[in-house]
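Reviewers of the previous submission asked for a worked example of the structure-prediction workflow described in the proposal, so we include one complete record here. The input consisted solely of the amino acid sequence. No template or homolog information was supplied to the procedure at any stage.
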Amino acid sequence: DFYDNHNLLLFDSSLCILVNLELSIKKPMEMHALSNNLANRSEIYCINRIGHYYICTGTFNKDKFMVVNAETMKSTGFFGAYSNKPNSKISDFVHARASFGKTVCYQKDSLLVNISYISGIITFYKFSNERPVLLKEVIISPFNYIIRGESYSNQGVMGFLSLSITPKYVYALYSGEKKKGNSIKATGKTIYIFDHKGNVKRKFKLDAPSIGMAVDSNDSKLYSLVQNGKTDVYMYNNQLVNWIKWLKYLCPRSYIYC
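From that input alone, the workflow returned the following structure tokens.
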């Protein structure tokens, strides 16, 4: 995760080590270990920073996020209720694990967006008063899993796989397909475009299955990771803002509108 345009946060979930890389032309890269007080938090798998706080996404029993003061490295609380379980008898622990996904933030709007890989659920939050406040939850496909021992088995389609946030929009790659047995990565073709309040503005389909994507800050280029025996990066030279405004722009690579 980047913040302040010149700091890169790297988090090793196996060692629970958070590293801040300061990227500067005038001085060499500096590395600071920040997470000694988080060493016992094995539930954490994703960390973002907004202002003076780290937002830690993890498999906590009751809530998605733990907020940590960046100066003291002490928790200030847990926030962000999970989406509904497919069965009320499922334990909080199992549902937290099934909600595993990704959180991406946009500093200027204090925006947090969270997805779960095995559901088509995307949730928008505003970070305000030292906590994430729910803006909107959008459900394309709900959770559909069953209990296997102390774990779970997905019976439905894969959900959102990747996120990219620009100053105007949130782009989310959606699968909507069952994961193939021998495949390492789930793939998707559908891109949903949301505004920062969680309203769907447009969706379209890529011409090749993608395992991840990113969009530049001008909404002019979309980059897609495609695995076809090898991993390729497809660049789509677009004007996505014009698509939303005029709904008729075609880029060099083919898009199929939904």
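Confidence is low (pLDDT under 50) at residues 29-34, 241-258. We consider this example representative of the routine output the project will generate in years two and three.
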